[in-house]
Predict the 3D structure of the following.
Amino acid sequence: MKYSLNWIKKYIDIELSEDELYKKLTMSGSEVEGYHMLLEDISDIVISKINKIEPHPQADKLQICTVTDGKETYSVVCGATNIQKGQIVPLAKVGASLPGNMKIKRSKIRGIESEGMLCSTKELGLGTDHEGIFILKSDLKKGKSFKDYFDDTIFEIEITPNRPDLLSHYGLSREIAAITGKRARPLEIVDSIVGNTESPIRVEIKDLEACPKYLLLYIKNIENPSSPQEIKNALIAMDTNPKSLLVDLSNYNLFETGHPTHFFDADKIQGNIIVRFAKKGEKTITLDGEERVLESTDLVIADEKKILAIAGVIGCANSEVNDSTKNIAIESAVFKPSLIRKTKNRLGIKSDAAYRYERGVDINAPETSLKRIMKHFREYTTFEANSNVIDVSAPAPAIRDIVLKEQTIKSILGVSLESSEITNILLRLGFKIEKLLESSMKVTVPTFRYHDIEREIDLVEEVGRIYSFERIPAARPYIRGPLVLNKYRDFKDDLKHVIAGRGFHETVTLTVSEDKLYQSYGYQEDMLQITNPLNISQNVFAPLIFPRLINVLIRNLKYRPEQLGFFEIGNVFSGEEKERISILMYGKRWGNNWITGSEEKIADLFDLKGELSAIFNYLDIKDKIEYKNVDLPYFVPGRSGEILLDGAQIGWLGQVEPDNIPSKRIKYPVISAEFDLKALYSDEIITYGHFSMFPEIERDLAVVFPDHPVNAEVISAISSAAGEMLRSIELKDVYKLKNKAFSLMYRLTFQSGKKTLKDKQVDYFMTQIIKRIEGDFDAKLR
Amino acid sequence: MTQIAKLKTEALELLEKASTLEEIEELKIRFLSRKGELAGLFSEIPKLDPAERKQFGQGINDLKILLTEGLEEKEATLKRSKRDLPPVDITRDPFPFRKGSVHPLSATYIEIINIFKYLGFIVVEGPEIEEDFYNFEGLNFPPDHPARDEQDSFFMQNGKLLRTHTSPVQVRVMESQEPPLAVVSPGKCYRRDTIDASHSSMFNQLEGFLVDENISVAELKGTIKYFIKELFGEKKTRFRPHFFPFTEPSMEVDVECVFCGGKGCNVCKKTGWLEIMGAGMIDPNVFIKAGLDPVKYSGFAFGMGIERIAMLRYDINDMRLFFENDIEFLDQFR
Ligand SMILES: [Zn+2]
């Protein structure tokens, strides 16, 4: 929120420099995001006096003014009609700057030289009036800089949601008083409001929980002039355009006290005011000209015929104050914060009133605000009569007392504070203190802090932040556990390095993404939809990872068209949320250089399978992994398969269907694997057995199969027939023969852990294997 | 003696010239064999003056050693060259290989987690698709409160939401385990923010909390200061009061700007400070909601944005770079 330093200084004397004030506020919890001068863009504007006004010889609408800054006189051409001889006005001299990068140059206007410009409020960035020159008070000193009188420092402060009491100049002054040890002057208000006429409007509240307090003040025959410059300046500093006194005072009160009030044109109210919930579907047109359709949870201010305002959010056009308004009714009320918040969020209305009501206003602010406004009326305008304050309220909330123990301060803040120091801090913040026995005290909370000070711990925070966390000594804790380590994260981090080391780049892509992306690669299940997406390209929680890796691939082909590899670890939702890893390989496994000559190897399924084997080997689960030929919708038919761990499917590997990839740059197969990650992790400790000291014997087995067999099935048959001396099987060669026949050559390695194997023994194993293969596959030894 | 010198000159000349193993063999026979020229010189010793014999003998021996070593060395060199392995230029390119990288966000996580592991914290991860209770209610966010505005959530069809911070893990851990607890929890979070240089609908956080008896702001400060020192080196820090619904008191932690050393620059918006995390003492309401006794236990919690820290560490000025995965960007990391 924005604060004007001039305005703050009405309530408190500040001896600190702006920089010191900024630091004090920031270090006590009101973070100053920055401060700047209001008239930053202005220079060389001086206070001057009009000595003479003559007509312009060439133009009826222009005049030539002779003005003086006390030292020199200037001849200035001016088109405004509101100037008179003797007035004090702002003069922009030649060389002056005005907002919007405007520079004043010596120039001829219709043949007459002008040595500067007299300025309107709009030209100075201080208002909307463009027609007339800004006529200043006659006691301003000629020759002084305009800024000396009108500049201000604007502080931008982040007010956290727990501190609605700071959303006003008076509120911030109270806070500055607390942190600087000063006192804020009380607001100037009338002592009491005594009626001399009867209000024709009475008030009825249907639900006192929704509206615990509603005050109404009726004022008869009030003049609505334009506001004095002081009020205008204050509003302009708040980026609010001054309109007329009545509108301006409502805004001024909001920025001054933080309490929203609403001014109705009393003659437009039919009968009495009723505070009630809207009927479902009830419509009204709000001040911004929008038609609003209401729900039965929306609180409204109505008369007997129509809705006058959406409570605490925005008024309606039908009862707005305008130039012809004579009689007014001023609402000063309290509404339940959560109701206001629901309505304003549903209707999408942002208003200064709603911003404060949803955070909570001071239950005592309605009276103060009316008394403050009355004070202003007496000062700035005239009216015929006013009513008594009509007050419909729920019983006042109980006085809030909290017991604060010095021991609690010590155990939470970690520092022992003197009782007097605690008391001093709380008194400065507006709390009342009563000493109790046993180093404790009864603390009474002021009503303006009812929304955030409810418990002892809240007082501890107040003491801590004013004492300053900076003054609390640091201590390294002794951490007693817990002792159950979670090694899964380490496992993942290690895995990332292993895979990166094998030539893949880790990516991080957005999990919230578009359903169409996954459908375009063949995902057919329902996806978990986001019910309030920001845009259509982020409407689901991803069910897969690999389509996003393909997007990353496409994006990077323009830089690296020949070779890319990516992987990502992330969560997917497919029936449940689980963590997956996806790996993508594209282009050259290795390209040609001075060693490989013209040869190069384009990565295919078996290259990625090799990488997976290395990874599974690293994880010590190689023996538990199997692959199964299965056609999956994402891949080229006949070129994909499932990955199984201990017989259970954990993912897949395949060549992505090229027709699904929306890029013309793709010229090599896109190979992808994706599988569940958690399944791979095991915290089993590996125990090493004895290893054999005896020689291995290798035998080749070449077999002709009538049709291409499934390699995994052949290996499984060989293993079960071979007995326990078989150490390894490798597929060495595959030949296509006539008809559909295939010849496969395997290299088998045998070894005993106890002795040197004899050829005869191995011959026996081989006979068993051949018998089994011939029987199972209708195959012949070659 | 001149005989020895003559022989030495001749033999060394021949050794120098020899370029085949055959020639070496011939030289061995000529000079070193039993009937070779050195043996011939030895046989002349008895003919000499007894006074010269010793010196003469010594001279022959020295020459014998010199020739033997020279011939062996030359023989070895010739044998190696006979294997036909020409020398190579080791500075040439290697066999082609694929280069990979670990994402800078992962690298940052690893670095941060290692610091906390050293202090005794363990890692616990939680779900990204979360229940309102864990994301908000259990963390003392009242329903319909403006504190929720800063954490605009994505709501899911299944009634859950995408967690807006990693703090739900606090509630999950406290609900299932008795203190002492010292946990850090890394992970992805989501907010309905339009993507720009400093916002993203998905971002990464690290939550940490310590719950035990007698934990105060002093321990909070000690832990955070240690962490900052390990990560950024000796830098000034400050603990600035703030507000979070789930901590009381709450604060934000600033570190002296790493770019300007605290003098004020564009990155720190001229303040000289960079905000790097939120922290505070766990609110008693959070303990109560998780079923722990707030009288017996106290604790602190903190949370930091990983992108923010990675941006500071690697001097990256746009958050979008992390999620665009341009190879030229990724390639700069290992
Ligand atoms: Zn800086």
In short: Residues B 257, 259-260, 264-265, 267-268, 272 surround zinc ion (CB under 6 Å). Chain B touches chain A through 93 residues (CB under 8 Å).
